[in-house]
Amino acid sequence: xxxxxxxxxxxxxxxxxxxxxxxxxxxxxxxxxxxxxxxxxxxxxxxxxxxxxxxxxxxxxxxxxxxxxxxxxxxxxxxxxxxxxxxxxxxxxxxxxxxxxxxxxxxxxxxxxxxxxxxxxxxxxxxxxxxxxxxxxxxxxxxxxxxxxxxxxxxxxxxxxxxxxxxxxxxxxxxxxxxxxxxxxxxxxxxxxxxxxxxxxxxxxxxxxxxxxxxxxxxxxxxxxx
Length: 226
What we know:
The protein is mostly beta strands.
């Protein structure tokens, strides 16, 4: 989940999500089908979100960012995998998103886990720009196929339901490579519930020094009306 704006802006997505203290109630019963858990998680991810309230509290460290995630490729969607288009843009430049990704959210190999794989659109920045605002017209993605996407290897986000209706997780170790601003790897942390999601994306150099990404915590995206 990488970004190209200043070091204070998140990369993310699903799409592209910091771990915060959550509700301490017991997770949903383990007898729930794994596919139902996947459906609930994707429902939480789908919609429009904004970091406006956080920006108003602390404009020095957080921009007003708008995040949209919408299901695509219904013909390729199954009980065990869902596809989402993810777009992030500053509130002052909604027609020029700085981050566009496609997520494939599926059941993880480990029981009780979900995995969000991250893909870049074909054609680099110019190719992605053609899909700016396509959350309004998800059929636009029928013009491309999953085989044309570039997967961000090692940048998968693994999610677990830490409490009832609360999903948390992140990337694994130093597997998500990054060369942005002298980084060698990136780390993404995510927490989401019915209200919205918090994402914290950071880059570190070979000596594990923090070189990009928000310093004070993750971006808080609150669900808003379309």
